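re: ur question from yesterday

yeah so i grabbed the chain u mentioned. its 311 aa long if i counted rite. heres the sequnce exactly as i have it in my notes:
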Amino acid sequence: MVTLSGVATLGVAMADLGPDWLPGVGAVIVSTSYTWAICARTGGRPVVYSLLALVLGVTAIGLDREFLRGGAAVCMSVLAAVLAVISTVPAAKFSSVVREVGVASLLAGGGALAVVGFEPHVALQRFEYTTFGVGVLLCLGLVFRLGAGLHGLGRRGLAIVVVGSVLLAVALVYAETLRHYGSPALVEAIDDARHWSHDTLGATPRPLQFVLGIPALAWGVHMRARRRQGWWVCAYGTAGTVSIANTLVRPRHSLIEAGLTDVYSVLLGLVIGYVVIRLDLALTGPRGSRARRAEEARAIRPEPRRTSALL
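ran it thru and got these structure tokens back, copy pasting raw so excuse formatting
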């Protein structure tokens, strides 16, 4: 209820209703409740850290310094992205996978409202890289505990971590290389594709979100129903949730365009995630439709419910 009241406050503020201090109040409420939730989920100290988040949020709003508001926005984005991932539960069926990705997207979206509620003045590229890096590292640190450390990886888990890290690095390096050193013809072709998508669909999906982040989250929650190594796959899902949390920071996007961008990215990511899951089952699962249904029925690896502590 506290989180919903904060999100409602931010919604009213975004509709230009109410006083000027309303966005800050909503942002502080959401950041405090998200801190409580992430501590409760990971077996931390919700009271201590929630009070700390409350004090820091009020200080950032009260002193009204750009670096304080920017720092609060970074923390809010990271909190939302990580909470979105660790709040998921194992999903044996793809319909359940869709539900879990939807839950994660909604949590990250609530965080996006709080991020702009702090009204930060940031360098967009630096902000995105900072939240992305901190979010992924924090989630990997939590997964290190949830996945029983490195010795719980096994060969399969180790391969997942290596491949995921390589894909992540390649995606970031390629994006930067293309931005600075890409050939004019290639850059023009990419820009034309973006303009076509924007003009035709109303928004342009984000490649890192639908190529890596959402598929990793979808595959991860599906794998967690069978093996705890699925947590390591979920960690790379932070690439998708942090992008959602940063949606409204981009000044050129309207609220409708930002929402459509995330919807398209999530839908495309689910399609890719479905393909990855089917390939995984084809390579490692039993043969035959009856055997697959039986395996799916037995895929009940226990985890605490969504509102309970994982540790």
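noticed a couple things. The chain has a mean pLDDT of 82. also The chain has one domain: 2-298.
anyway ttyl
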